[in-house]
Amino acid sequence: MVHQTHDRDDYDFPETPNEINLTEMAEEANFQAMLEEYPRQAAAYQYSGLSRRSFMKIMGASLALTGAGLAGCVAEPPDEQIIPYARQPEEIIPGIPLFFASAMTLGGYTTGLLIETQEGRPTRIEGNPQHPASVGASNVFIQASILHLYDPERSIEARKDGQSSDWETFLEELAGVLEDAGDGAGLRILTETVTSPTLATQIETLLENYPAARWVQYEPVAQDNAVAGSRLAFDADVNTVYNFAEADVILSLDADFMSSMPGSLRYARDFMDRRRVREDQTEMSRLYALESSPTITGATADERLAMKASDVEAFARALAAALGVDAGDAPQFAPWPEEWFEAVVADLEGSSGSSIVIAGPEQTPVVHALAHAINAALGNVGSTVTYTDSVVASPVITTEDLAALTEEMNNGDVDALIIIGGNPAYNAPADIAFADALEQVPFSMHLSMYADETSQLSTWHIPSTHYIEEWSDGRAFDGTASIVQPPIGPLWDTVHSAHEILAALNGTEGTPFEILQANWESNYEGDDFESFWRLALHDGVVPDSAFEATSPSLRGDLASALGEAGFGQSAGLEIVFRPDATIWDGRFANNAWLQELPTPLTKVTWDMAALVSPETAEELGVVNEEVVALTLDGRTIEAPIFTQIGMAPDTIVVTLGYGGDITAQEDAPSNRNVYGMRTTTNMWHGVSVRVENTGATYNLATSRWVEDMPETDAARAGTLRTFIDDPDFAHIEHSGGANLIPPIIYDGYAWGMSIDLTSCIGCNACMIACQMENNIPTVGKEAVESGRDMSWIRIDTYYITEGETVETRFQPVACVHCEMAPCELVCPVEATIHDHEGINNMVYNRCIGTRYCSANCPYTVRRFNFEKYASELPIMQEYRNPNVSVRVEGVMEKCTYCTQRINMARIAANNENRLIEDGEITPACAGACPTQAIIFGNINEEDARVTRLKEQPHDYGLLEELNTIPRTTYLARITNPNDALHGSSEEG
Amino acid sequence: MSQIFSPGSNTVAKLSILGGALITVLILGFLFVRDQSPNTRAVGTAIEQPVRFSHELHSGVVNIECAYCHGPAEKSAYAGIPDTHTCMSCHSQIATYSELLEPVRTSYETNESLVWNKVHVLADHVYFNHSAHVNNGYACETCHGQVDQMPLVWQAEHMTMGWCLECHQQPEQFVRPDSDIYTIGYEYPEDQLDVVGPALIDQYQTNVDGLMTCGICHR
After folding, report:
1. Which of chain B's residues have a Cβ under 8 Å away from the Cβ of A1?
2. Among A136, A285, A299, A414, which is most exposed with the fewest C-beta within 10 angstroms?
3. pLDDT of res. B87
4. Residue in A964, A971, A514 with CA at minimum distance from that of residue A743
């Protein structure tokens, strides 16, 4: 195989170290220069002569000398193959990623994305800057969704009655069923919320073909209350779009609009654009948040009031009455601080036309209707609040839909049930026995990515495509349509999309792409469809597809429609159900990135917990991790207790999604499925819940360090008034002190980062983005418990309690790239050293795992690979970023400022003989951030955004008194509390 | 009771300690030398390929420029191996019945890739970028040798980190004008080190200080 085609001696090989006499070498100028070289980089040892590393090198050379002459070696040609394309697609250059515009749908609403592919493999997801729901940002669900594509536990086999089968057999059987279907009286199709115009058209066609068939929608986290509220207020189905960029005063009625509502990313951005306080910009909006469960929206609010979920409606009624809205009875009680209420009323009245009252999807239809009426009364409609036609193809109250379907199934009226997505057998309300009814249906089919509970009870299970593999479309919160464009074909031949199922039902020909294109073409009114289509695909946004504003009028009899305030003041313990901040309704339960992501505020990973305030815990006599049985209307679930500051009184919060097959764990409480106690009447909260201690305990892995974080200088904050009076308030005098390390001059690029604590909403998007970009492994629950989580960036959360109010401060902390880095001084092998641009490099191949650096890092941002965490499953390697090393056991790692992106930009700029422009480099965290709280750039460039931010008076460095000179600095958090609520003009 | 150890035991113990140390050192030294050896790194070993593609013929005799087939080197980290269609752009006209080209024609017809054996394999933690070198004055020949004299390609340099650093420390030794990037057999002017090299470094605006930082190649 291997030929020796020429004599080795023909080549003049450079001398290898073992051929050099050490004594001679020491005297050589080159060697002296080399000794200079290494210390120069190490910064610490510039003038010390011999560095540790050089010492090690010489040791190595002397070993080599000793061993010289023993080298009897065998030629080992590399045994690797290189496989070019047979026909290379024009647009592909190996090594240069491609980006495809696509969109992801969650809860029916789409967000526009750009999906990066490396030689065809999707490796990264970013927001699409042109898409109104994304404006370039993304959230944890979007980022982590890429993991599902490659999930080795994905279902890839069609099953009939639990036995493996195939698509063709299914089609044959389906054809038989449809032949007997007649007018479709026994045919039902069950989907999740649908905004996809093409899917809606296909379903319409189905209903035309089978007029007696019915389309049912169910989704556990649906907009039912908003739909009902809109019907209550307008007697019509109306979609509400908020414009936070114009809002001076915002009142959230239990609405977590920054993380869990349609349009959240856009709302968070717009909201924060009104709060970027700078030296020359001292105006900011004010957010009042009323909430029953602690959310990041409440944590960001200027004035937050924790309130029992069932009292929010009373508050809304009282507010409506105070603002002169004719909306039925005002309550006769007021379980809230009077001055708080008055402050809200005064502020809202003072900002007519530029305020927003927003109701949460979890609040009752009455609250939604009242919010509409209040916005109308304040003159906000048309400026900060606009209405459009419903974005959802067919708005329904999904629980009513599902209840009716289940009844039909039980009566034997359903012969064939087609279930597209979802997992209703697991997540249907407890009083709808869908799972039992499903077994009665003679022919049922479930299209799903996992062979889950519903699949197991259905006659057929058909594995579904992932959205990254399928052609589809959908609409965003404002109606803007996007084409879901797959950057990769299905990874498996056996998976199929909803459009294929519908095509089979309708007996239509064509691939999903053809169906999609045909649908858009038939609705296109211009004369150049080809250009229109190409533009829609390229931009990821269908041009001019946002819905126009409508002006629905409130019904005249609103007061009577709202009915009597048929409620008394709440009493006893309440339970609140919320979608999980990491696994949503359970659909992301099989996603390790999300499971290991610390839930915002609680920092619990891998689990759900029953959250209670420390006071309530004391009253109940329970402590953290004690498993309690919660009983509501005779239905019981079990969950471990976890105390959380800032909870509403007498309230227990549990999140959806756990306790299904996917999250089944041996040691977990067996009945922790929250859906088991959630009923149609208690969809989001229930009163009079009974709590019993089971005597068992269950470990929760939390990355929270201490129980009550003391007020600290780490996350500095002040009020707007403080900032105006004393812009330098965030500066703390420190001595500066002597430094052993001589200063280094950076005259080229000098990378730095600025993080605005005002803008940070603690949403975790940066954490998942970093994990995806930098090939960071997950470690599992036990390792998290031992503090061995690997995330390079963490969100420190501080609570500052003052009387009743709790102020929450989020502070993202990654390696701050100290100019005088303590870690570098203690590394015996110089595996962590400074470069000429100020980045603290981590050289994995040098690292021998002493962990001295980690011990000496005051920011505790270094992470150590205690085990080989990276998965070796071939499919799990597909999503990895090829531009970042996968670390092995025994190696230290930490934030690199995304050095691979810096290198890429540097190479591109060098190749064109120019300098890197401001904004050309965006680290993964900054790219994902919904509020643009993280800005990165060259601090030597005068006009760079990061330089401007670092010049702000409220810029400060974390632990700067240690003289580390961190390259990442923070802008102190500035809030805008209402002085009237805090006695004097002093900061609250 | 008699002594367990004879007086000679001390010497034996000392010798075995010394011997043990010596053996350890020898083994480590052997491994080090072996790793650095050009022989281990298969320098000068021609690698058998599925098609006996000759750079000597294409690059030497026919004088096709490197970038005709390895164009991505100018834009990407990878120089790329041409697809079958690139081969056939000429070979649909030239040597159409050559037996040697049978695998190429098969690949063209079946659309199945040719599988080549890799000649240059860098460690996975090295992020070498072709475009950064080719666009800034470093020629193909500098690393790949005179491929116009290689019937089958072999590795011309041992490509250890120390070898990379020779140039990264003093790039003016090897830098060339843009016009000679693809030249094979280029002769450096006599004043390369003092005049021409530094002038080219200036022209390419190369930040020489930065070339010695770890993060430039390792991520």
Report:
1. 48
2. A136
3. 92
4. A964
Q: Tell me which architecture the domain covering A159-222+395-539 has in CATH.
A: 3-Layer(aba) Sandwich (3.40)
Residue from A87, A881, A886 to probe the interface with B (highest B Cβ count within 10 Å): A87
For residues A406 and A429, the answer to whether their CB atoms sit within 8 Å is: no
- For domain A224-389, give the CATH number: 3.40.228.10
Which of these, A275, A299, A291, A347, lies nearest to A976 by C-alpha position? Answer: A275
**CA A530/CA A510 separation, integer angstroms:** 19
Q: Which residues of B touch A907 (CB under 8 A)?
A: 129, 131-132
| pTM for the full predicted model | 0.88
Over residues A700-742, the pLDDT tens digits come to 888 765 545 554 578 888 999 999 999 998 887 776 666 666 7
Q: What pLDDT is recorded for position A6? A: 39
Phi, psi for A936 (deg, rounded to 5): -125, 145
For residues B152 and B59, state if they share a domain.
yes
Rounded to a whole number of angstroms, the distance between the first and last alpha carbons of chain B is 67
Q: What mean pLDDT value characterizes chain A?
A: 86
Q: Which residue of chain A comes nearest to B30, CA vs CA?
A: A67
Considering the domain architecture, whether residues B133 and B202 belong to the same structural domain is answered as: yes
Residues in chain A within 8 Å Cβ distance of B124:
885
Q: Token pair for residue B150?
A: 């290689």
A26 at interface of B, judged by CB pairs closer than 8 A: no
* A82: chain B residues, CB-CB within 8 Å: 81, 115-118
Query: Is the distance from CB of A554 to CB of A233 less than 8 angstroms?
Result: yes
Q: Is A907 on the interface with B (CB under 8 A)?
A: yes
Q: Please, where are the H alpha helices in A235-364?
A: 264-273, 296-300, 312-322, 338-350
Give A774-785 pLDDT, tens digit per residue. Answer: 999 999 888 998
The CATH number assigned to the domain with range A574-702 reads 2.40.40.20
pLDDT tens digit sequence for A855-871: 999 999 999 999 988 88
**Has residue B49 been placed in a domain?**
no
CB A851 within 8 A of CB A864: yes
Q: Quick one: fold of A717-731+748-975?
A: Alpha-Beta Plaits (3.30.70)
DSSP for A903-926 reads: HHHHHHHHHTT-PPPTTS---HHH
CA distance B48 to chain A (A): 6
Considering only CB atoms, which chain A residues are within 8 Å of B48?
A: 1-3
Distances (CA, A) of B179 to A134, A909, B135: 46, 20, 11
Closest to A199 (Cα-Cα) out of A551, A497, A572: A497
B44 with A71: Cβ contact below 8 A: no
Contact assignment for A84 to B111 by CB distance below 8 Å: no
Q: How far apart are CA A668 and CA A678, in angstroms?
A: 20
Question: What is the CA angle A348-A351-A356, rounded to 5?
Answer: 60
Q: What pLDDT sits at residue A28?
A: 54
CB A734, CB A960: distance < 8 Å: yes
CB contact under 8 A, A83 and B215: no
Contact A292, A308 (CB under 8 A): yes
Nearest to A457 by CA among A426, A415, A498: A426
* Contact call for residues A516 and A499 (beta carbons, < 8 A): yes
Q: Is A363 on the interface with B (CB under 8 A)?
A: no
- B202: closest chain A residue by CA: A913
Question: In whole angstroms, what is the distance from residue A892 CA to residue A898 CA?
Answer: 16
How much is the ipTM here?
A: 0.88
- Count of CB atoms situated within 10 Å of the CB of A629: 16
